[in-house]
Amino acid sequence: MTTHPLHKKSLFDIAFLTLIFVACSPNLQSKNELQPTALMKHETKWLVEALEKAHYSKVSIKNLDRDGFIDHYLQKLDNQKLYFINSEVEGFKKSYEPTLVTYFEQGNLFPGFEIYNSYKTNSLKRIKWAIEFLTEYPKLDSNRTYAPDRTELDWASSVEELDETWKNLITFEFLNETLAKLDANETLDDISDSNLTAAKQESQKVLLKRYSRWQKNLEEFEAGDVQELYLTALTQMFDPHTTFMNLKEKEKFDQQMNNEFVGIGARLSDEDGYCTIKGLLPGGPAEASRELETNDIILKVAQSDGDFVDVVDMKLPKIVELIKGPKDTVVRLEIRPVNNPSTSKVVSIIRDKIKLTENLASGKIHKVQNGKKIKRIGVVELPSFYGSSGNGPKATDDVEEIISKFKNSGIEGIILDLRRNGGGYLSEAVNLAGLFISRGPVVQVKNTDGSIRKKFDFNPKLAWNGPLAILVSRFSASASEIVAGALKNHSRAIIIGDPTTHGKGTVQSLIQMNLPFNFNHANIKKSAAKITIQKYYLPSGSSTQIYGVESDIVMPTINTFRPIGESDLDYALKSDTIPPVNSRRPQNEFVYDTHNLKKLKEFSQKRQNTYEEFDYLKDSVEWFKQKQKEKVMSLNLSERLIKRKSDELKNDELNDIYESFSEKSFPEQEIVLNIVQQQKEKSLIARGESLEGDVDNNESFQKPENLDIRLTESLRIVWDWIDIRDGMNLSKKPNPTEI
Prior knowledge:
Elements: H1 11-17, H2 38-54, H3 66-77, H4 86-96, H5 100-106, H6 110-133, E1 141-146, H7 159-180, H8 193-220, H9 223-235, E2 243-245, H10 247-258, E3 260-263, E4 266-271, E5 274-280, H11 285-289, E6 297-303, E7 309-310, H12 316-323, E8 330-336, E9 345-350, E10 352-355, E11 362-370, E12 373-381, H13 395-408, E13 413-417, H14 426-433, E14 440-446, E15 452-457, E16 468-472, H15 479-489, E17 494-497, E18 506-512, E19 528-537, E20 553-554, H16 594-610, H17 612-628, E21 633-636, H18 637-659, E22 668-671, H19 674-686, H20 709-725
Parallel strand pairs: 12-13, 13-16, 16-17, 17-20
Antiparallel strand pairs: 1-21, 2-19, 3-10, 4-5, 5-6, 6-7, 6-8, 8-9, 11-12, 11-22, 14-15, 14-19, 18-19
């Protein structure tokens, strides 16, 4: 199994990065400090043993970088360095570094909980301080500045220094809210005193409301959340993709990998303490009930004929736990309808298995025109290499179904779009690569003992034997890199997009925790660990770790200048190489040669040097780089109004240029998976609507509203390739143009 490269964000990570703080009651001391449970002791001991035995690096816990670990845990708690001062950090290290390894070996989470409880106390005190500071409006005419990103700064040396940081922080947040409520075209001289006062009053209310929500989040944070945060800080010292999963995190992971769950089929969000329905999943029980609407508010939840539980101001994850349950059981919801908010009603829904069809593979056929000649090119967008141990959806099966429908529509080339694909099951990557080769090696896997296994595609069946391009980005990772790298090694596909992919060349296995006898009951769900157990290599023997898969044809991108690659992650494993796998391609299979690839590069580069949309991309990259250099922000309202106007003019200019490209898109027709069409029909029936006129029309090509510049250029490249295949002399032909 391979997984998404980016760190999953905990509640704390998200809250700190967006600086969502909140007010508290006069009593700052938490009634009950959080403490680890007996079960957590067993889970921790198991995790340490699993890391030492199963992790690829075979590193003993005794070799743990204790100083680095405490820094890493504090980074998860206080990412912006707003709650601890340097002496407290040094105190933690002095107290816990000498015995940290012993604590882990004993399964003792005492240091993690003590540091968290200190963090919580500091946070509540700091929130009270912030509220007192906000009794008066912060001054917006000073020459002060604030650095919104404090992750690389040192800890404050004193409480007084931290006070000054918080004064600037609150002023920064207050100024941002005030700016949002003032006319974007006005300068300070244009704004009336009454309008400015009204904006300040509203900004103050917004901040105080945020503070009260943050205090509530702190009080509701549970011992299991602290455990997950602390133990994941430990696992990520081994490598960034090894994580501990408590019960809630494991359930989320299973849902993501399998694209299905048991529930009512509704998207929920927390809006000012109210659980609000933001959407109904097609064909789900909630939609089928015909009693729920988007923006209805859930007030209470009951199981079958049990008592109702008030969920107003309850944490959203807890509400989700109440609503989810075993298949074919009843959940009752007391609803405040959006169309009649003065009343409430009770809705009974039978839980069922929900297929997340929106996360499945999707296909489109594009009509790409050169002069008077049109060629049809299919695009498969694959969001992940999902799979299932049962009869659930599998990425390979869905892509094969789409390709079959492509061929029935007479396409001449295919683009596999993996730009947003962060990985998935290793087996699906091998099987999917096999759709495009009759046989041959796909990936080599190196185990912790140094042994190497070669994974081949032995299925002679070819789903597609024509021109194939793979569109990638810096976000394409893991299983995406296996497929792109293997098909590039086989000269079977050309790679287009960002200079390189993400660079994740490791394989993780989900290991379920073993519980001691007194906890190991059949009805008890178990935590798990996702542990890096292998590294993978391409058939050529090269590793994608750190360096990724290089594109054959590159386009301008801001991703080059963003910290989103494997090389940007702490404790990433090193890259290396192993011997290649010797193999030969059957002569009847479609491959490209270096001469043809050189032609395709030349044609694309000529367009990139002359087409105006690439000038736009280059300008956007330069604008992004310029904004990146702005590390501090003024806390002067007049200066910020001028800066905002200048930024908006530049953004408007770029947006106007981009919108002018809308006619450059090639017409497209959606290709729908059978399972998606079935859910769509089920949804129509549930709503009492007719199926008439809802059947896909093979000639229903429409232009998209916005131009996808990179996809459009990829379509042109594949058009060129088809032309080469057909034996045309492209040097005397015009380049593909847009309709």
